[in-house]
């Protein structure tokens, strides 16, 4: 299947590590021009070099997505440099464990880490997405629908991303801009590794326990599997798909709990 993504300019937040990195690599391999917006300098420089060495184009802007001014600059500079925006993958975020016992300031900070920049980038990119009839993919989480415990901020942000997916899908119908969400469950990434290693006395045993609860093949979803679904949703091969929540999770959320 040809995804017809050649020369499509696609912004990927957090696009040089974990799920974002896999998305950047995948769309670059499909001929798209990824534009990474992140704060991870070393990983970004390395990835840009690799993609450019392989003959593909890639760009990056370094900064903190919590800053509205950075989101605005990313969009303005992308358009100045490349003349168009065909897609946005809202991906950067962190499960920061801000629970009910934390104070309201921490809750607000968690929303800032995980939610506001999803809106800010789309807000500033809107005129260009209208021109290109672009596509938006919001990377949410199963936590939005299952909860996890002790993570009110992240759960609220991930749930709001799903609500915005439906809201924007409706708002943007007149412009043929499609908006979809992907809900990963368990994907081994630098963030996930850090969480396992810093939270549990025996991270290996915990990892095995988590895998044992994933119905399909008792393994984690790979970042590449999330990236493949994202590339499809960005492409015109999904041209009549909008407002959808796509669970790429090995059956984690929906399959029978009694499965052994
Ligand atoms: P990751 O490995 O930490 O990669 C995220 C990248 O985004 C990192 O480079 C991070 O920089 C960057 N970033 C985060 N906040 C930023 C900010 N405010 N400004 C600029 N850059 C920022 O994370 P991941 O596991 O791939 O997760 C990606 C997305 O998938 C997140 O939205 C997460 O909630 C979602 N998700 C992941 C899983 C999973 O199992 N991994 C499951 C469900 C949902 P630093 O390295 O400096 O932090």
Terminus-to-terminus distance? 35 Å
Strand order of the largest sheet: 3-2-1-4-5-6-7
Tally of individual domains: 2
Reported by name, the CATH topology of the largest domain is: Rossmann fold
Largest sheet data:
7 strands, parallel
What's the CATH H-level homologous superfamily of the largest domain?
NAD(P)-binding Rossmann-like Domain
The CATH class designation of the largest domain is Alpha Beta
Low-confidence stretches: none
Number of strands: 7
Count the DSSP helices: 9
Write structural notes for this entry.
- It is a single chain.
- The protein has 260 residues and is α/β, with parallel strands linked by helices.
- The protein folds into two domains: 9-185 and 221-246, Rossmann fold (3-Layer(aba) Sandwich); 189-220, no CATH class.
- The protein has helices at residues 18-29, 41-53, 68-82, 104-132, 143-146, 152-171, 190-199, 203-212, 223-234; strands at 9-13, 33-38, 59-62, 87-90, 135-139, 178-184, 245-248.
- The protein has a seven-stranded parallel β-sheet, sandwiched between helices.
- The model has no long low-confidence stretch (mean pLDDT 97).
- Bound molecules: NADP nicotinamide-adenine-dinucleotide phosphate.
- The site of NADP nicotinamide-adenine-dinucleotide phosphate (NAP) has 27 residues, from helix 1 and helix 7.
- NADP nicotinamide-adenine-dinucleotide phosphate (NAP) binds at residues 14, 16-20, 38-40, 64-66, 91-95, 113, 139, 141, 184, 186-187, 189-192.
């Amino acid at each position: 299947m040809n995804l017809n993504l050649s020369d499509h300019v696609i912004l990927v937040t957090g696009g040089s590590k974990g799920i974002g990195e896999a998305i950047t690599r995948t769309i670059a391999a499909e001929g798209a021009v990824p534009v990474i917006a992140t704060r991870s300098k070393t990983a970004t420089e390395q990835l840009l070099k690799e993609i450019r060495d392989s003959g593909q184009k890639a760009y990056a802007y370094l900064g903190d997505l919590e800053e509205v001014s950075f989101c605005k600059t990313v969009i303005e500079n992308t358009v100045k440099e490349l003349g168009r925006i065909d897609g946005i993958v809202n991906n950067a975020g962190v499960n920061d464990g801000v629970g009910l016992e934390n104070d309201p300031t921490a809750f607000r900070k968690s929303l800032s880490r995980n939610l506001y920049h999803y809106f800010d980038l789309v807000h500033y990119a809107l005129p260009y997405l209208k021109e290109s009839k672009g596509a938006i993919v919001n990377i949410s989480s199963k936590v939005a629908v299952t909860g996890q415990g002790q993570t009110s901020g992240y759960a609220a942000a991930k749930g709001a991303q799903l609500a915005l997916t439906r809201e924007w899908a409706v708002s943007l119908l007149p412009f043929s801009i499609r908006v979809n969400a992907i809900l990963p469950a368990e994907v081994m990434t630098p963030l996930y590794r850090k969480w396992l290693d810093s939270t549990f006395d025996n991270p290996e045993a915990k990892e095995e326990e988590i895998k044992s609860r994933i119905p399909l093949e008792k393994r984690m979803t790979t970042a590449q599997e999330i990236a493949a679904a994202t590339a499809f949703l960005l492409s015109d091969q999904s041209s009549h798909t909008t407002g959808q929540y796509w669970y790429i999770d090995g059956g984690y959320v929906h399959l029978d709990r009694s499965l052994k």
